[in-house]
What we know:
Elements: H1 12-15, E1 24-28, E2 32-33, E3 42-43, E4 57-58, H2 71-86, H3 98-109, E5 118-119, E6 121-127, E7 142-148, E8 159-165, E9 193-194, E10 198-202, H4 211-224, H5 235-240, E11 246-248, E12 270-276, H6 293-297, E13 319-324, E14 334-337
Antiparallel strand pairs: 1-10, 1-11, 2-9, 3-6, 3-9, 4-5, 6-7, 7-8, 11-12, 12-13, 13-14
Helix pairs in contact: 2-3
Amino acid sequence: MTRTTLPRPVDIAAVFPELAPLARTTTRLHPRPGTPTPQESSVGGPLLWPIDDPWPFCEDPHLHVAPLTTLADVRLKRDTLTAAWKRPRHPGVNLLTPEEDAIIKRIQAGHSWTDEPIAMIPVAQLYARDIPDLHPPLGCDLLQVLWCPFDHPEEELPKAKLVWRSFSTATALLSNPPQPVAVQSGDYIPEPCVVHPEQVIEYPALSDLDEALREQIKAWQAREKTIADAGNFAYSFGLSVAPGWKVGGWTSFSFRDAEPAICPCGTQMQPLLRIDSTEWDGGSGSWIPIEDQALNRNPDLSYTPPWEPVMVTIGRAYTMQIYTCPASVDHPPVAWMQ
Length: 338
Ligand SMILES: [Zn+2]
Ligand SMILES: [Zn+2]
């Protein structure tokens, strides 16, 4: 099934022609739970990893938040709760059977702290053939993103690693990659998802516009919202930057002060991949793909709400934006919670 974003309720570049040259394409990934293969683009799916290529481990210090859990327990908890939610529910009766309740309590008790190196886990695998906004370096056609699923000092985020490859050079594949001995929680464990890439147009967030244009748009928005559905005329939510997991395009900030990411070489870094806690929320409902709108109206039918298909949570439902330096693929990427 494809995923289709409706045209924006207002062609904002027709209202403000100054925006037209600032238009950028982005590729919305639309990840949804599934069983991707190493030969497919995915979120949280198996990577096309050459057998003789060392698997990355993290040996950095981790912020201490015991108790820990394991990948197997995160998956068991999700499977248990998903199955329980599928059964008819009766008011006043425990959702879980006694056996399921025992499983959940055992998982919640957790595991003790570890200082062992942590095997990184797959976060995204993106083939350039599927993702028009990927723009890989010369000779590469595949981006693999892994992370260490713990909070690290400084950004309090998982530590991400980017691997660019040519898929044709990966012939003998690693079938059983190392797994972390423990993980911090389920928050940084993506559910295996297939993706449904869709290219859409974005305009800069208000914070990326010059002050004069920003004020004009704010005034327009204040005028228009008295006429029609306020959400449709909200530049930030409906007309500029798409929500959800996406590649390229513009970025936006919520709790964090807006500032450009500058590489130590002096070049302004550009958004590569945005990892989002939700695919949409109350404010960004105009971006819900047509194919998901019926499910969105009946979210109580499943344990996982349709707007959280990946089950990754960054901070208080924020985003993690990975930036790269356009000057050189060798300049380290940065990742911000924003
Ligand atoms: Zn780490
Ligand atoms: Zn640089």
